[in-house]
Write a structure and sequence with these properties.
single chain, 0% strand, flat
Length: 75
């Protein structure tokens, strides 16, 4: 039937979406990789230090709020 609704996606040309690395020149790609690797190393080091501190000191987070403050004040 001629009057039946058509999908608008069939009339659009298929365009390939380029990835992040495809639009970068090789020098920018190398720099991006270096920065990302350094950030990953810093994150791993931070997690390791945090884990050591947690095992040494334990989880000593004090409850914060009015009720805990008030109970410490009275007790």
């Amino acid at each position: 039937m001629c009057s039946s609704p058509k999908s608008s996606s069939s009339s659009r040309p298929k365009v390939r979406v380029k990835g992040l690395y495809e639009v970068m020149d090789p020098e920018k790609r190398r720099r991006f990789t270096e920065v990302a690797n350094r950030a990953d190393e810093r994150k791993a080091l931070r997690q390791e230090v945090s884990k050591r501190w947690e095992s040494k000191h334990g989880s000593q987070t004090k409850p914060s709020g009015f009720f805990s403050w008030f109970s410490q004040l009275i007790g």
